[in-house]
Amino acid sequence: MMRTAQLSLRVAFAAMLMAAGPLAAQTGPSPAADVAFLDALTWGATPSAFAQLRRDGRARWLQAQLHPPAEPRLPPAAQAQVDALTPPGTLLERARSLEAQSKAAKDLADPEARKAAQSAFQAALNDAARNAASAWVLRALYSPDQLRERLTWFWFNRLNVHQGKSTLRAAVGDYVDTAIRPHVLGRFRDLLMASLRHPAMLRYLDNDANAAGHINENYAREIMELHTMGVGSGYSQADVEALARILTGVGIDLKPESPKLRPEHAADFIRDGLFEFNPNRHDYGDKTFLGTRIRGRGWPEVEEALDLIARHPATASSVSRALATYFLGQAPDDALVARLAAIFTRTDGDIAAVMEALIRDPAFAAAQTSAFKDPVRYVFSALRMAYDERVILNTGPVLGWLNRLGEGLFNRSTPDGYALDAAAWSGPGQLTTRFEIARQIGSGPAGLFKPAAPDRPEEPAFPVLANALYFSTLSGTLSAPTKGALAQAVSPQDWNTLYLASPEFMR
């Protein structure tokens, strides 16, 4: 019986996709346009978020999103979970504790005891990364400052680090919370500097090993190629080499005592938590970078180089193009990029100003109902629509779904981050997996409301997708094939599955 029901669901799903064609854009009345606007700037429209937008109006709602409070906000039930997932102490204190744990494991003479201790060390790293990803999921689903959370994902992806390298599993959460999220609507230069000074980036791209006489170009190359100017933007290999020399001595140090410094440069030493600028490791020779002579004088060289990169016209264009691609779901035309880049330059890299210009551009409205959701946006929007303000108790299924769809949090191993355009996520294999995940989300709680405490049973829950927002607004945006497929549903579970798997919801 179950196999027959699943087969009928698949047939209805296939009929929707074939009849809908290449996900053609739909038009609708003003409420439908507001839902599309909301969906484009958040992790998914919900009945409560839609009501808030309609009460405030677009202008007021948008200003609140562009200029949120400095401190991240969450409803109490979500905040309590995030607090429980957040490790105590500073990143430096946690890193020293892990270092001591690793050293103690290696020093054990008994092979079995050593193996058990090393397993415990790896388990601690895995727990740190999983907790960080879980906290990120909760912020994405429930923060009222949704645009900030969308941009946190975008900027982390552009300034990507991978949890699998070394002990980065213990640092990725701090990287998101201290280097990325606080700056996503501020000045680009501040965001870039926060990333540069964070131990996760320095270790991931090997700048902690970059020293005078032992140059490592990895970070210098990626900061220009991926983070700022972009490939083919006019910089040369000589510029990469010069920047690598400028970045010598920028690294990490866990030792509590300061290094013994040469007297002539001792005043240049900087220590901030795990971050360190060590003048003993710095190349003090003069450099020529992007056509500018930079006098060798220590840390001020890094500040000057970052000014040159952040204010370069190629950076304005590259960042503007990436933002537009992410929020449009497709490559923007050159005219739009030029308009956004001009604002980037005029405002000295004010990300909120660039975002406001993008949102007000006609291209943004034109793309709202045609952009195909990437996996993270698809899963988050499904959960937000299904449960609205009810806070899930277990993020494990969410993390598993994202991994199955190929866009797991902290799991992109290469520095380039995940693809931004919709075409990267619309293949047949992706759609098949989405259907299976739609069935899991649509059929019941799917483990989302199983508390972490083993003695507490799973709370009863059922996704409410046929809600007031659906009947008042969303139903009017559906194509005839989708309505026909939904009419074939023999149960609320079937209906939910087909709705989540519909072409309209995947946009």
Biggest sheet: strand arrangement: 1-3-2
Order of helices and strands: HHHHHHHHHHHHHEEEEEHHHHHHHHHHHH
What form results from the Cα inertia axes? globular
Per DSSP, what share of the residues sits in E-state strands of 2 or more residues?
Answer: under 5%
For the biggest sheet, the summary is:
3 strands, antiparallel
What does this structure look like?
The strands form two sheets. This protein has a three-stranded antiparallel β-sheet with strand order 1-3-2. A two-stranded antiparallel sheet has the order 4-5. The protein starts with a helix and ends with a helix. Residues 1-5 and 17-29 have low confidence and may be disordered. It contains 25 helices and five strands. It has helices spanning 2-20, 30-41, 47-56, 58-66, 76-85, 91-107, 111-142, 146-158, 172-180, 188-196, 199-204, 218-227, 237-246, 299-310, 313-328, 334-346, 351-360, 362-367, 375-387, 396-404, 428-443, 468-472, 480-487, 492-500, 503-506; strands at 250-252, 270-272, 275-277, 287-289, 292-294. Helix 7 (111-142) packs across helix 19, helix 12 (218-227) crosses helix 13 and helix 21 packs antiparallel against helix 24 (492-500). It is an all-alpha fold and 507 residues long.
List strands and helices in order, with pairings:
Layout: H1 2-20, H2 30-41, H3 47-56, H4 58-66, H5 76-85, H6 91-107, H7 111-142, H8 146-158, H9 172-180, H10 188-196, H11 199-204, H12 218-227, H13 237-246, E1 250-252, E2 270-272, E3 275-277, E4 287-289, E5 292-294, H14 299-310, H15 313-328, H16 334-346, H17 351-360, H18 362-367, H19 375-387, H20 396-404, H21 428-443, H22 468-472, H23 480-487, H24 492-500, H25 503-506
